[in-house]
Amino acid sequence: MERILIIGAAGQLGSELTLALTSQYGGENVIATDINPKALEKFDYCKTAVLDIMDHDATRQLVKNENVKQIYHLAAVLSATGEKNPLFAWGLNMDSLLFILELAKQEKLDKIYWPSSIAVFGPNTPKVNTPQYCVKEPNTVYGISKQAGERWCEYYFQKFGVDVRSLRYPGLIGYKSLPGGGTTDYAVDIYHKAIAGEHFISFLREDSFLPMMYMPDAIKGTLDLMHAPKEQVKIRSSYNLSAISFSPKEIYESIKIHHPDFRISYEPDFRQAIADSWPDSIDDTRAREDWGWKHEYDLKKMTEDILSNLPAYLV
Ligand code: AKB
After folding, report:
1. Which residues contact 177 (CB under 8 A, 6 or more apart)?
2. C-alpha distances out from residue 199 to 61, 202, 208, 226, 278, Å
3. Pairing mode of beta strands 210-214, 244-246
4. pTM, whole model, 2 decimals?
5. Per residue in 126-184, pLDDT tens?
6. Longest alpha-carbon distance in the chain
7. How far from 91 is each of 97, 136, 163, 312, CA to CA, in Å?
8. Which residues have any ligand 1 atom within 6 Å of their CB?
9. What are residue 47's DSSP bridge partners?
10. Which active-site residues does the annotation give?
11. Which end of the chain has fewer CB atoms < 10 Å from its terminal CB, N or C?
């Protein structure tokens, strides 16, 4: 049986993608891996393995022994954490991607998925409806690593035929796991504070707009891209992908409708400069044209869904 390996499965995206892949391929054929053994305990429905992606030998052995044919490589240091330890972030983000691309080439793997991000854009990029192709001068180590990673993905596709596919995710918002060091993660934390009846302090200004997406849309987009016939995947760096765009004030107001006593204050920190360097909104025409991308959730629908489901997750 050909298996799917998920690297960094216990993170925000991996937690939900692993479940979706398991329902499509069956628990026997999905291997969730993470560096943290405790974090793997929640995956009682598929195969698991403790894996440090920097351990090339162990990763290669796992791929060979388990007959892995597809890899979702999700492990990365995100934007805010990356700024605290730039060389570590660069080392992990780049070394792991290059190793996986090389492994895919050597072992003739079927498909690789690697997430890119709106962080590839920078202060000189057009901010509104940011096009697929435009100036990209990222000024975070995370953004620089995603931009370089995109070039490597296209290189491995063009030179060696590695079928690697990628999306430039906006801020992803889910309630099934806690945020992991991103600039957009305030939009996850705010729901937790509202449910707990606590005051929320936003580390971004009230009018700081960023592109965002509810997790079910992100999962659907990822699987649609991975299931698309090869010839429809015409962009091999990474596709712009868009759903909603809002500010801290707007998400707060959407929550306040359901929690009238909820309070917010604004104390921008170093993450404001990161947000200021990213687009307000994204043009994802190519994803819509090439393989039929369509989002479902707007801010109102996402807030209703999170507020009705999050409490059950917290008990
Ligand atoms: C982050 O904020 O670092 C991530 C991203 C936009 O890639 N969520």
Report:
1. 10, 11, 12, 15, 16
2. 48, 10, 19, 40, 27
3. antiparallel
4. 0.97
5. 999 999 999 999 999 999 999 999 999 999 999 999 999 999 999 999 998 887 799 99
6. 58
7. 10, 21, 24, 38
8. 78-79, 117-119, 142, 169, 171, 182-184
9. 31
10. 142
11. C
